[in-house]
Amino acid sequence: MSALGALLPNGGFSFVVFSSPTFLFIFLPVTLLVYHAIPVRSRGRNAWLLVASVLFFLWGAGSAILAILFVALSSFGGAYIAWRLVRRQRPNHADGEPRKISIPSFVTLLIVAVPLVAFKYVPQIATLEIPRISSTLTNIGANTWALPLGISFFTFHALSFVIDSARAGRPLTTSFPSYLLYLFVFPHQIAGPIVRYSEIGAQITAVRRITARQMGYGITRFTWGLAKKVLIADNCGVVANAMFDNAANPTLMSGTGAWLGAVAYALQIYFDFSGYSDMAIGLAQMFGFRFPENFRSPYTAGNITDFWRRWHITLTKWFRDYVYIPLGGNRRGVWVEYGALLLVFFLTSLWHGALAGFLIWGGLHSLALLGERITGLRNVRASVVPRRVLTLVFVIVTWVPFRALQVQPTVDIWQAMLGGPWDFVSPVLFVTLTPFTITALVVGALSFCMPSQRTGFETVFGRSAPDTLNAFRWRTALLLVPLALIVTLAMVLQSDFSPFLYFQF
Length: 505
Hints:
Blueprint: H1 2-5, H2 21-37, H3 44-61, H4 65-89, H5 103-112, H6 114-126, H7 131-139, H8 151-168, H9 176-184, H10 186-189, H11 197-205, H12 212-245, H13 255-286, H14 304-310, H15 313-324, H16 334-352, H17 356-375, H18 384-404, H19 407-419, H20 427-432, H21 435-445, H22 456-461, H23 474-494
């Protein structure tokens, strides 16, 4: 990830990692204690949570907080101004009547997206070998701009607020503090899940009573995600990094190593990102919020269409509701449907970055989705095991360009995956395959063969919604959570700092 790594902020970056000692032993306990010490009906709870969230981002990103403040002011103010302008132009339309996106709302969307384009895409364009463009951008220092933490996530939050406000015919809220809390609240601030204001707006203004059962669920879900990140993702990352870093060296890269590296990265990115989502959902529950699920056993999918119903669910729904359906979806004929699908996955690729690897990854997935629609394979229900195996192999192979970022290392690894040699004599494998990494790979691989209708959390602790908790297995939690916390915290204290992969997006 070196090309994007240069864009990441420095300073107190490790502070905002949920698996860092500073967060676990200082920030989280202090924030929780003060929050629950404030009377339930007091507005001070929201005020304290907002202050803590601002400090969380400020400490981790420093002056980059100006970017999220710009997004907050432009989206909130723009949604309000657009509403007032539309009311003046169409006085006979009552507030709250569903409306299409007006020109003022569209202009607001463009303004809100300015930091995302400036900080995320302009520096990447500056690295391209297009002499006139790259030299111009380099002269203004664009290739050295630091990427604000979580810029894609908080920008998409703000864009959804503007669009939903325009569609509703009125701003979803006229309380700027409530809107700031929505954008800044630290559990989802850096890497999602993408939460819409309509999903938690009522929770922000409501009296949030947190029962012992809810707190227990939150702690269990947070610990589950922490263990996924520290025990599995980070150890799988050791193997993946070694393989991808040596992609161009034929004496170190074998076919076995290439496949092992690809599998290790597939496990790393899944357990890293889904681990963050679990931790975010658990943290939110501790403060009385309910966040939507973001992953549902994606590696058990029977086809690529099913995979995208399970992987990064909130992003998939975002593009479905704000791009695919407005363009016509499947209501205006197959050509419009196919065109909208290709555009959505082009934008999904760009959401991760304007680098060749992301575009190759998104292009392959879009072609697979298109092929499943044309042939009807997405509706096939027979031959479950072969379909799951083929889907898994496709997903693992296409993670290669996503991780490699550029064309040449992608080709090198794919060639090794196809051409061998097939042995375990590579010195890289001897160094990276330790008891810790082997255990992580084996345990992580269980995600390939688990029941497709349940997540790993539901398999262990019971299928249960955070607002009911009827089927939550408390005895299992009481047995496993303390043990998992002890082991995981011991690993945190002795291991090097490891940021979440999706912090770069």
